[in-house]
Design brief:
mainly alpha, 77% helix, elongated
């Protein structure tokens, strides 16, 4: 149990997302927050500047695929199409930012876990990060391999009349929430060398809380300005959730 909450009982994914906003301001963490923050500002800031200049064209192209007999539903289909575009690009650019910043994201999760538990993490240092870099990048590739086939199937849904314009954006939102939960929970799990399959199995057993966490990350990632700080917030929130809900299942008590 973290020393930041009275109890982990009945705490949901939204709680841990909110907790992440408080944790990034902790004095000992600020220097570990700045590098993921800079990566997010550069990549997501540039991506969303471009996306918001192009989104009208993309959505109009999608609306042209709507059958004439469904045009009367345009007031529903148009905002769903906007959400669809935002979700696709949000996950793509978030993944890119996470790949680039992954060594520093893992370091932030490690330092925060050490502060919460009082158990000192291994003193990796810069050389330790460089030595671990191939394994970290391989882990990011594993997540992409998990994501791509599912994303392709969901993209194909969009070309099914009616279903594509109404159900597909909702499915994308739920799938995106699950992928955000996997993306950010994976940092504390990977710090303990827990295999991806074991991490995924653990999250599935607590799927609703992880979907809540991922939904919150998804929504804030689509909001300009706020999305620039979402990476360290999500890492801190997922690390607190790891300590409260999953750490005891995968580590020996009192040991890193």
């Amino acid at each position: 149990m973290t020393n930041l909450t009275e109890t982990n009982k009945n705490l949901n994914g939204f709680h841990y997302f909110n907790l992440g906003w408080r944790l990034i301001t902790r004095p000992g963490l600020k220097r570990f927050v700045i590098l993921p923050l800079l990566a997010n500002i550069i990549i997501l800031g540039s991506a969303f500047w471009w996306l918001y200049s192009q989104i009208g064209t993309m959505v109009n192209w999608m609306m042209e695929k709507v059958p004439d007999w469904l045009q009367w539903l345009s007031y529903v289909i148009w905002p769903l199409s906007v959400i669809f575009v935002l979700l696709v690009f949000t996950y793509f650019f978030s993944t890119l930012a996470n790949i680039i910043a992954s060594p520093f994201n893992g370091l932030l999760a490690e330092k925060l876990e050490g502060e919460i538990t009082g158990i000192a993490p291994p003193d990796t240092g810069v050389m330790g990060i460089l030595k671990d870099l191939p394994r970290i990048l391989k882990r990011e590739m594993v997540k992409i391999v998990y994501y791509l086939p599912r994303a392709i199937v969901l993209l194909l849904f969009y070309f099914i009349p009616v279903v594509g314009q109404t159900v597909a954006p909702i499915l994308w939102f739920v799938f995106g929430a699950w992928m955000m939960a996997i993306q950010y929970n994976d940092f504390p799990f990977d710090n303990h060398k827990i295999p991806f399959a074991d991490m995924k199995s653990t999250l599935k057993k607590d799927k609703w809380n992880n979907l809540q966490f991922g939904m919150a990350v998804n929504i804030f990632t689509m909001i300009p300005i706020l999305n620039l700080v979402i990476m360290p917030v999500a890492i801190c929130g997922s690390t607190a959730m790891w300590v409260d809900r999953y750490r005891d299942q995968h580590t020996s008590k009192g040991h890193w």
